[in-house]
Amino acid sequence: MNTFGSHNKHISSIVLLAAILLSLLMHLPHFSKELMSVHVWRQTQTQSTIDSFHEEDRNIFNPRRNNRGTEEGIFRMEFPLMQWLIAGIYPLTGRSILVTRIFMFLTGIACILGMFFFLRRLLQDSWIAGLSAWAFTFSPAFYYYTLNPIPDVFALALSIWGMALCWKNKGLKYILGLVLLSLGTLCKLPFGIFFLIPACSILENLGWFKLKQKATPLPEAIGKLVQLILALVPPVWWYLEVIPGWKGNGIVQGLMENTVPFGQLADYFVHNLISTLPELLVNYAAMPFFILGLFYIFKRKLPLNYWPFSLLGIALLAYFLFELNMIAKVHDYYLFPFYPLLFAAIGYGIQGFMRSPFPYVRTAAFALLLLLPLTAWLRMQTRWNPEQPGFNPDLLIYQDELRKAVPEDALCIAGNDESSYIFFYYIHKKGWAFQKDEPSAEQLNKWKNLGARYLYSDSRSIDKIAVEAGIIDSLILERGSIRVYRIPQNQEEEILGGSEIETK
């Protein structure tokens, strides 16, 4: 039995447009808000790189961080294509978090359209692909990050389109797909997993696994292989260059450098299975589709059983287990590479509901689909809350005054800030960040001698250490829990200022 509207491109276009417009309406109150909430450290890290491209250096190979002391601050992680593109808009608009959020929302739209394109090819049904793309739009995690500056959304958009174009395509579409996969991997290393799709396609074209009655001519297969290798060169070169500089980064080592007890790793696994998966990645209202879709995939002969996708699923599971100690219970955006297969399963589940001979089953499916935006909103409504921004709220409340308190180019000591990004982002300064009241008088003196001229502190313990060591003189500004002190530049100023600070 065919579903109503099967293969109806007009209906699917309406569904896609409705999903995008509703998402826009739900996000509208947050476009002009500053960065805050879950993983705000990652957001401020990304936005600080954007700002550095705009204010300091347009060289895409030189992303910079603010916690740099007197050094250049060049810090290469993922290839900063997204950050560089956003910074390229600022000369026209001025630096604006609104511009960044608009760019991210447009990137989210590209993800939604890419998911539709991929699922339409997989399911051979535009109507079901449109409904599945609707469900993807309101995945709570995707809904949240759609508006926030993290490169994972950008890499996801590139990779979905790249995988879809590479899958069983030839000529220019295949080459474009490889380019997009290459860029997606550059922008976020885990998305390199999707190169498995064109690699498997080449093996199949060579007649391996007896999946084709007649193999593709050898010259054509070799040509595709050469194109694939060329597409891999940029990300391989980039990460071979930058990974040695990732000191203390557990992403590359994964479980090979694991210090987390096995019991805790098991707890992480269970948490991601019973909480992150249904609550953040899928959406509770979409779980019936997901469960039915898994049943169809494993019990029936469906295209997702096509061996490259099975291999992709195994590779994703291996990636998850390898990075489990880093994913823990918090890094939901590390799981973005799972989205295409998760929503392929959901698409099969929606298709199963819609093909039911019982009208009440189809009615229940429509009810669940209509419920998705509400459940996504309910799960994420506490985010973007200025009263609980995920860091010292005084940074957000007094941001403008804190930025203007000292000269723009002054080197500063700032903290407490466990992220090393949030504090400097909000005061818009550069220098040395500290956390957990850690710096001693000797360390503060060292930073002073290197050129630190002001201390931003929300720690009375650090204030006391700085006063006792004679490092600071006058209190320039106090807003909420944050104090701004001047650090004297010579011994005479230090002696004269010592009595002044003690009277405050």
Keywords, please?
disordered N terminus, single chain, disordered C terminus, 504 residues, five-stranded mixed β-sheet
Structure description:
This protein is mainly alpha-helical and 504 residues long. A five-stranded mixed β-sheet has the order 2-1-3-5-4, covered by helices on one side. The protein is globular, with a radius of gyration of 26 Å. It has 23 helices and five strands.
Nutshell version of this structure?
It is built from 23 helices and 5 strands.
Secondary structure topology:
Layout: H1 9-27, H2 40-55, H3 81-93, H4 97-123, H5 126-137, H6 140-145, H7 151-166, H8 171-187, H9 196-205, H10 218-242, H11 250-253, H12 262-282, H13 287-299, H14 307-322, H15 324-327, H16 339-354, H17 359-380, H18 393-397, H19 399-404, E1 411-415, H20 422-427, E2 430-433, H21 441-450, E3 454-457, H22 460-468, E4 475-479, E5 482-486, H23 491-502
Parallel strand pairs: 1-2, 1-3
Antiparallel strand pairs: 3-5, 4-5
Helix pairs in contact: 1-5, 2-3, 4-5, 4-7, 4-16, 5-16, 7-8, 8-10, 9-10, 9-14, 13-16
